[in-house]
Amino acid sequence: MKTKKIPVRTCVVTKEKYPKEELIRVVRTPENTVVVDLTGKLNGRGAYLKKDLLVFEKAKKIKVLNRILEVEVDDSLFEELKKTI
After folding, report:
1. Does 3 fall in a domain?
2. Is 42 a domain residue?
3. In a domain? residue 1
4. Number of folded domains in the chain?
5. CATH number for the domain including 47?
6. Residue 14 structural domain
7. Whole-angstrom Cα distance, residue 18 to residue 8?
8. Handedness of CA 83, 49, 75, 28 (dihedral sign)
């Protein structure tokens, strides 16, 4: 019997690989807005963050989402990330 393949993604802050359900996806949509993608299926450029407050703070401090998503990320997005966990 075959085992089901678990999708693995890399956290953009810690560079560690985790199963997809342990990460939160942040997406730059085609309209250049940045949103938190809880479904993991929105169109656009995505970046994954580990579900950890320290990782969110470090991402805000080093502005990693600005660089990867190629757009200015608002501080309200980090507040929304904190509310999701």
Report:
1. no
2. yes
3. no
4. 1
5. 3.30.1230.10
6. 8-84
7. 5
8. negative
What pairs with residue 72 in β-bridges? none
- The answer to whether the CB of 49 falls within 8 A of the CB of 60 is no
**Predicted local confidence at residue 1, as pLDDT:** 76
Asked whether residue 38 is assigned to any structural domain, the reply reads yes
Note the Cα 28 to chain centre separation in Å: 10
Burial degree of 8 (CB within 10 A; 0-12, 13-18, 19+) = exposed
Residue pLDDT tens, the chain, 85 long: 788 898 999 999 999 999 999 999 999 999 999 999 999 899 999 999 999 999 999 999 999 999 999 999 998 999 999 998 8
Structure tokens that stand for 77 in this block: 């997005």
pLDDT at 84: 87
- Total residues found in the chain within this entry: 85
Can you give the pTM of this predicted structure? 0.91
